[in-house]
Amino acid sequence: MSETNPAAAEAAPYRYTAALAAEIEARWQDFWDAEGTYAAPNPKGDLAGDPELAARPKKFIMDMFPYPSGAGLHVGHPLGYIATDVYARFQRMTGHNVLHTLGFDAFGLPAEQYAVQTGTHPRVSTEANIENMTAQLRRLGLGHDKRRSFATIDPDYYKWTQWIFLQIFNSWYDEDARRARPIAELVEQFASGERPVPGTDRAWDDLSEAERAEVLGEYRLAYASDAPVNWCPGLGTVLANEEVTAEGRSERGNFPVFKAKLRQWNMRITAYADRLLDDLDALDWPEAIKLQQRNWIGRSEGARVDFPIDGENITVFTTRPDTLFGATYMVLAPEHPLVEKFTPATWPEGTREAWTGGHATPAEAVAAYRAQAASKSDVERQAEAKDKTGVFTGAYAVNPVNGEQVPVFIADYVLMGYGTGAIMAVPAHDSRDFAFARAFDLPIVCVVEPTDGRGTDPAAWDDAFASYDAKVINSTGDGVTLDGLGVTEAKARITEWLEREGHGEGTVNFRLRDWLFSRQRYWGEPFPIVYDEDGVAHALPESMLPLELPEVEDYSPRTFDPDDADTQPETPLSRNEDWVNVTLDLGDGRGPRRFRRETNTMPNWAGSCWYELRYLDPHNSEKLVDPEIEQYWMGPREGMPHGGVDLYVGGAEHAVLHLLYARFWSKVLYDLGHISSAEPFHKLFNQGMIQAYVYRDSRGIAVPAAEVEERDGAYWYQGEKVSRLLGKMGKSLKNAVTPDEICAEYGADTLRLYEMAMGPLDVSRPWDTRAVVGQFRLLQRLWRNVVDEATGEPTVVDSEPDEDTLRALHKAVDGVRQDLEGLRFNTAIAKVTELNNHLTKANGPIARSVAEALVLLAAPLAPHVAEELWRKLGHTDSVVHQDFPVADPAYVVDETVTCVVQVKGKVKARLEVSPGISEDELEKVALADEKVVAALNGAGIRKVIVRAPKLVNIVPA
Predict the structure, then answer these.
(1) Does an H or E element contain 805, and which?
(2) Which residue, 93, 297, 451, 828, is most buried by CB atoms nearer than 10 A?
(3) Taking a C-beta distance cutoff of 8 angstroms, is the pair 542, 553 a contact?
(4) Whole-angstrom distance, CA of residue 21 vs CA of residue 6
(5) In angstroms, rounded to a whole number, what is the distance separating the alpha carbons of residues 280 and 678?
(6) What CA–CA distance (Å, rounded) separates 811 from 800?
(7) Is beta strand 97-100 parallel, antiparallel or unpaired with respect to 58-63?
(8) What's the distance, CA 929 to chain centroid?
(9) Cα separation of 308 and 43, whole Å?
(10) What is the pTM of this model?
(11) CA distance 595 to 598
(12) How high is the mean pLDDT of the chain?
């Protein structure tokens, strides 16, 4: 508890108390706002400013976009915001022009659900949340350039989100050039005959508009397609894979999720898979995050192989083409488009009962199994299930290497979204294929010789043999033999044969799938797309942007019986007929025509894919960003070959999706010449989490943590014993502590210091309100070292400090400077505390030069009290742009160090020597020491090992 003793207050009216802290903090926050203290000048434009400041080296420091929750902030939320603020303040004091601001990622499901429940427009509740959160953040003294703040729901912002979508829609990826190009250039190639029109012998000019649109849809980087999606009838919307639990249910609401085919917008992020992988190498990111991105992209080299069937081919991708001679059956994903095409009317003669699933015809078996598979998520389908399921389609394909017929099954462990949606099954050398083959009594042929002594007869095996370190056997066919080769050599030889014979080719595959970009929601960015009467999609001209969200009577998508998979989405926007069906002149020379608007909205990821660019030039209504301004803040430079933000801080939970999507958008914009930075974020730092104890009663329900009592090593709530477990902090867990509470009790500077001092920034740590007072006392001692608590006047003296104080000061300056640069804020605070304690123990007035340096050291960490003390020390300008102290090397190095002298490995003497003593001189001093002379007792010396200045080891003869 902070002091509230009336007697103490009367005796020391200028003591640093919570009340004084509150007054100081409010006053300086008003001063910073009025003076524009944190305004970072651009090199040009409406935010240009002091040219001398703009000429300094730049630092662009960012936090991950916050969502304005109705619950407001708890003390866990500001951890990263305080950290970036400390770092930004330090960078300003070390001669940088620092851009640090904060906006709001304001589209999203919570506001929409609140609107559904209450009828309140999502904009109203969201803007109220933003206002509350802005006030909470302001109270922390964060040095943001508020001129640059915005919310993704601002039409002036999402105009450019829509514009970027159209850039992506109107682009294609040129594999030869390895970059995106305008779709108009592809049209020119088709029209001139330079590039043949795929799938037809007709000329481009002979195709209808709808046919051309279909061709271009196979190239566009944003395209609509009938794709398998996660359909959740209970929520009335399609969900991305990350929104579906491992149990195949919606993360929000816990409703069943089914596989369905719907027409959805997608982003062709797969075109950039190689570049997204390659460019990770030059980024200063945690290796764990890079690994997660690499695993998500999932690059694998192998071969595409065609298995002939009824005059056509089933194409598979395999990383082990060396095992083709062991492929004894094929498996297709249940939703594979070829399943209906090759499923016969009746079972072939000799079909085993186990293959049919008990159905009279292949069509019935396939339909029943598809329905069963549709109720499972991709995660469930790929899980290692004890019992393998599937049915025979009734069709046979031909193995191209040996001409043998192989039965074609469908099974849920094969996904349409990976590879080609079909696999060649080699049961002898793949565990899932082995289990499936055993379950359905399918042939198993060993083609890679086991090295574990099990022999080559799979009938005696308990599991598949999977190894790269072995020789290929039983693999000789017409024109090719792999027998006796190692796996690597066999892969190369069979791939060469496949290409020569026209049965396949070597290729690269990726786990990464195209990005599903549609949501059946109201509260999101409308697509700037309209459809003509033939269903052809047209981009709105830039003059029609932003396309603003219309008013609707009901914000909720139509929901259905959660278990009814045979349903289709009905979006909120589709209910506003006047908005959906419009007559527009798109400026294409064809005059006004009737169109139907797209009624899906963009996902909540869209607004956060490019917000770093808007921070640079937030009021530009003519361009996404001025090129010179973007180059100044984010362009490539030494050590940053792809450019980007200098420091991006946020939680590791965004390791893959947000970062991957933002990188993709940056690369498209870079390819099209709109920006100079091919990567959005050069340096990434993941802060840990502030945790709190959760107390639960016998029913498992969380009880208010503040009302729990500790007695005899146990925890009690209203007379009942409760359990305690360290976990997340949150309103629902009844353990949230708000920053407002701590600021009221101790002040914002104390909260800032406590959060930074709790431990390394990247490590999670438990919150303990009782420990906050320690940092409050540090500030009180710092205040007392400069200010007379009785008069409020400074107590410093204009004299030279003693040598001990100079050494303590310069060691602190050196250490704090290094720690702040390295984001080691906890150890920086420890060094400030050590210096402050040294000055307190001196028990006398402090030299002005030392007091000023102490205040400057504390300024990035506790800016309000630093401003106040700086002013009391006689300065009229803000501490924010003062130079950070620089250590004098002469005082950083200890005057003497202790050198240990060993004789025969045992310590015989300790010498105080100069840190710069030479090895020769140290040897002479050690040999002359009386204790060493006594230990040698006249013996000769065989060897002297000197490690100046700390060790001498003497080996007697």
Answers:
(1) helix 803-821
(2) 828
(3) no
(4) 17
(5) 11
(6) 17
(7) parallel
(8) 61
(9) 63
(10) 0.86
(11) 10
(12) 93
Percentages of the chain per state (helix, strand, coil), in multiples of 5? 40, 20, 40
316 forms bridges with which residues in the sheet? 305
Distances from the Cα of 747 to the Cα of 388, 664, 773, angstroms: 62, 42, 11
The residues near 291 (Cβ < 8 Å, ≥ 6 apart) are none
Tokens of 730: 């949150």
Q: Report the candidate in 815, 820, 817 with the shortest Cα–Cα distance to residue 831.
A: 815
Rounded to 5°, angle at Cα 168 from 112 and 214: 100
Residue 93 neighbours by CB under 8 Å, 6+ apart: 856, 859, 860, 880, 881, 882, 883, 884
Q: State the pairing for strand pair 951-956/897-903.
A: parallel
- Residue 48 has what DSSP assignment? B
The helix/strand/coil state of 268 is coil
pLDDT tens column, 143-185: 999 999 999 999 999 999 999 999 999 999 999 999 999 999 9
Residue 272: which of 170, 354, 174 has the closest Cα?
Answer: 174
Lookup: tokens for 439: 């379950």
CA distance 610 to 629: 15
- Hey, CA dihedral for 41, 44, 49, 52, is it positive or negative? positive
Three-state secondary structure along 932-955?
A: HHHHHCCCCEEEEEEECCCEEEEE
Residues in contact with 558: Cβ distance below 8 Å, sequence separation at least 6, in sequence order: 236, 569, 570
Structure tokens at 352: 């085993």
Residue 377 CB partners (closer than 8 Å, separation 6+):
230, 244, 245, 246, 247, 248, 249, 257
pLDDT in tens, 508-537: 988 898 998 998 889 999 999 999 999 999
CB within 8 Å of 498: residues ≥ 6 apart: 303, 305, 321, 400, 504, 505
DSSP state of 705: G
Which of 414, 410, 228, 420 has its CA nearest to residue 307? 420
Pairwise CA distance, residues 469 & 489, whole Å:
12
* Cα–Cα distance for residue pair 510/11, rounded to 1 Å: 73
pLDDT band at 2 (very low <50, low <70, confident <90, very high): low
SS3 888: coil
pLDDT confidence of residue 1 = 47
CA dist 27 and 859 (Å) reads 16
* Residue 368 backbone phi and psi in degrees, to 5: -65, -40
Question: d(Cα 956, Cα 935) in Å, to the nearest integer?
Answer: 10
Helix (H/G/I), strand (E/B), else coil: 885: coil
For residue range 709-765, list pLDDT tens digits in order.
999 899 999 999 999 999 888 888 899 999 999 999 999 999 999 999 999 999 998
Closest CA to 164 of 827, 663, 665, 582: 665
